[in-house]
């Protein structure tokens, strides 16, 4: 049975939260050796954005640092960017942490993503606790990942959890690098890591929010639906920013879209929309008045559904109207699935499904590519890495260019 690791080996480090402590910690970090293990804890389910409320760092010769940047974010960046910027990082599930770190002005030189390493190595479960258990036969004390990390003071057991997230991250990266090397996959992993680093390299802040990008809004077609959705979104956004609250805690996307889809005729009707957060009696009236304002506005100002230029046919249209090329798509997909099983890499890591569909369509009824060289260029233009092209190119050509 795996041994429980319930507390950091060197004890729980203090929470650093003032500029003087940042400067001292950064100086200590600079004196360490090797890459830096990096993690964050965020509160997107509670706060307006996905900024980091806790940053965990660990380096050999230094130990673990727990840092609270809230309130002194500029000072945090001034202290740690010169030390961490351009350095080698070890990080688990990099795509989830790199944006919030970039908002703090922290950008790695190179990364080693232990979660992605687990996927490429063929692990069945790639969450950190599962990988620590598999590699080291240790069981992490877990259970606080979904907490409100903006809460202050942070409870002691939360700090233990946070410290354990980087406790063995450096050793895990070393073990995974050895395993990937033995499997002949280390170069693949390095290409993947660089791709992830590069697509986050230019991030300086949160993306600009847009009502049209709200999940579900694309299913609305009529102008009266869209004007209601826009009005509800704008009000929700203003409240969320002003109160620093997650939009889901004000009016969930699903509810917003459902109200817009069938604009209610009264506050009472609106309050009966499934999932509506009727915590206050006045809430239904408040949001119904917003619906009324939207529908009473000048129709000339109502938004219309943007014309979507469909590059690919829908699955049903493709299967029904272009059966020959759809059969080729299925054959290439099956070949990739067989390859995935053989090399123990998930199919989506070998090639994104969207890229697969685009390539087959372009080489058949889409008429965009006619040679195998053009196929290579298309795959690369759609973000496929060299190792992915090397593996999938023969599978495409066997089916498409015989």
From TrEMBL:
Entry's CDD domains? RNaseD_exo
Q: Which domain of life is it from?
A: Bacteria
* InterPro entries in alphabetical order: 3'-5'_exonuclease_dom, Exo_C, HRDC-like_sf, HRDC_dom, HRDC_dom_sf, RNase_D-like, RNaseH-like_sf, RNaseH_sf
| Native organism | Corynebacterium halotolerans YIM 70093 = DSM 44683
Task: Please report the name of this protein according to its UniProt entry.
Answer: Ribonuclease D protein
Task: Please provide an example of a Pfam family that matches this protein in its UniProt record.
Answer: HRDC
MF annotations from Gene Ontology:
3'-5' exonuclease activity; nucleic acid binding; nucleotide binding
UniProt GO BP: nucleobase-containing compound metabolic process
Question: Which residues are in the HRDC domain?
Answer: 222-301
